[in-house]
Each structure stands twice: as structure tokens, then as C-alpha cells.
Amino acid sequence: MNRSFKIFIICEDVVLNNLLKKSLDIWMEVASVQFYTSFSEVKAINPGENLDCIVLDDIITGSASHEIVHILRQKKKIKCPVYYLSNAEYGEEKKALYQGASYFFKKPFDPQELMRHIAGNTKARATMNVPNNASQIKSIEEEQGNLLRVEK
């Protein structure tokens, strides 16, 4: 299968990384996903990188995540949508959006809703695998539930 879509996930939480990767695989089988787990890895992203989107968790070692958004937008000149995931404490939502995040998802969030946003706002929407019957939806919910249970 042609894996032409490029999605970066910036997150150090292994469980969340697995949930996002599995959700992307279910919803958009063509997504090529790269993981970054620290600020030093993010600094190595090429300026002007051609991406479909970035999913950024609020907890990253080495920097505040809203600062990472600023670096991606201002120094790296990344233009794709940035989906910011956070507990929204201490005005984090305003900071993230002010620095250039495109969307803010408050934890806990619905992974299917995030996938609908990603697919709807990227060229991936043309190949989106929208679950179309109750058994597919139940299967996705069970898979995501199994991943979320590990975190508790």
C-alpha cells in the first residue's frame, strides 16, 4: 500500500503513542507515522518539512509543549495542522493556540473524534476508512478500550 501521508506524533507516553498509531492505522491506512519523544528530537526536524499533520502531547521532556509549537511554526516553518493534546491546566489551551496550534483536544479525548479531524483536514480524507457498520465501530472501540486500560 502507498504510504504517502506523513504524520508526526510528538509524545513521550508509550500508551498514547500506541493508541494514536492504532487509531491512524484503522482510520487512514496510508499514514506514515514518525514518533518524537523529546525536545532534542523535535529540534532535528527539517525546516519546511512537508507534513500532513502533527499531533503534540503536552508533556515533553526538555521544553514546554506550547514552546515546541512556536518553534515548529516560527523556526521550522511547518505549515500543517498541529493537534495539541492537554489537560488544559493553567491556561495551556490559550498558550498553545496563541503559539500556533491549529486544534486543541482536552484529555481525556475521544480518539475517533481526533481521527475525524485529522482525516477531514488533510489530504488523507480521500482515503479515510470511515467505519460504516456497528461491528466495525465496536471493534475500534474495543481496541481503543484495551489500549486505554493499560494506562490506568
From TrEMBL:
Pfam families: Response_reg
Keyword annotations from UniProtKB, A to Z: Phosphoprotein
Response regulatory domain location: 6-122
SUPFAM superfamilies registered for this protein in UniProt: CheY-like
Modified residues (4-aspartylphosphate): 57
GO biological process: one example: phosphorelay signal transduction system
Name of this protein: Response regulatory domain-containing protein
